[in-house]
């Protein structure tokens, strides 16, 4: 595949991913499937964010388990070699998922302390998108790295939005 074709494919994945993210969050948030915490004190808000993050962390756990499970079956990776071709892509997928999870965790904890109570249900909606997007990233990247963009963007853009939103709320709270 030539470079121009690769650029077009990545651009198409991004162009499709963005409206899918927006539509997903809109539908999930407004469906009422998720609610905010039962109480509206700071401890309940932080507990709510942490409990939701647990579900996002399960994707990372699955990736760690996948890599660990592959090690005993191949001589080039049984010794812990994460540069072996067999696992190199899986290790990169896992590393990026950890990076994305850190962004999600910090942003969601900040948002949990600052959002109005009626908007807190956005956090589990965003976590559910994170889970779906990370699985799509994992599948796409495993097929061919050129197919990772949809899932990456569906994780990274919401994380950027959450971090910007949290930063704005922190600045407003300090004024």
Automatic annotation (TrEMBL):
Q: Does the keyword Transmembrane apply?
A: yes
* InterPro entries linked: MAPEG-like_dom_sf (IPR023352), Membr-assoc_MAPEG (IPR001129)
Keyword Transmembrane helix assigned to the entry: answer is yes
Q: Name one Pfam family in it.
A: MAPEG
**Where in the cell?**
Membrane
Q: Which parts of the chain span the membrane according to its record?
A: 54-73, 93-112, 119-140, 146-171
Q: Which UniProt keywords apply?
A: Membrane, Transmembrane, Transmembrane helix
One biological process GO term for this chain? regulated exocytosis
May I have one GO cellular component term?
A: lysosomal membrane
Q: What is this protein called?
A: MAPEG family protein
In which organism is this protein found?
Candidatus Phycosocius bacilliformis
């Amino acid at each position: 595949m030539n470079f121009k074709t690769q650029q077009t494919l990545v651009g198409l994945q991004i162009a499709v991913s963005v409206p899918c993210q927006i539509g997903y969050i809109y539908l999930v948030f407004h469906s009422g499937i998720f609610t905010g915490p039962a109480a509206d004190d700071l401890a309940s808000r932080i507990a709510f964010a942490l409990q939701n993050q647990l579900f996002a962390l399960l994707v990372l756990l699955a990736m760690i388990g996948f890599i660990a499970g592959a090690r005993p079956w191949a001589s080039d990776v049984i010794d812990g070699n994460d540069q072996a071709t067999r696992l190199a892509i899986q290790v990169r997928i896992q590393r990026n998922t950890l990076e994305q999870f850190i962004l999600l965790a910090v942003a969601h904890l900040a948002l949990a302390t600052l959002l109005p109570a009626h908007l807190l249900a956005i956090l589990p909606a965003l976590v559910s998108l994170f889970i779906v997007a990370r699985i799509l990233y994992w599948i796409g990247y495993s097929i061919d790295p050129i197919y990772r963009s949809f899932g990456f963007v569906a994780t990274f853009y919401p994380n950027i939005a959450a971090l910007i939103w949290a930063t704005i709320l922190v600045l407003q709270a300090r004024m």
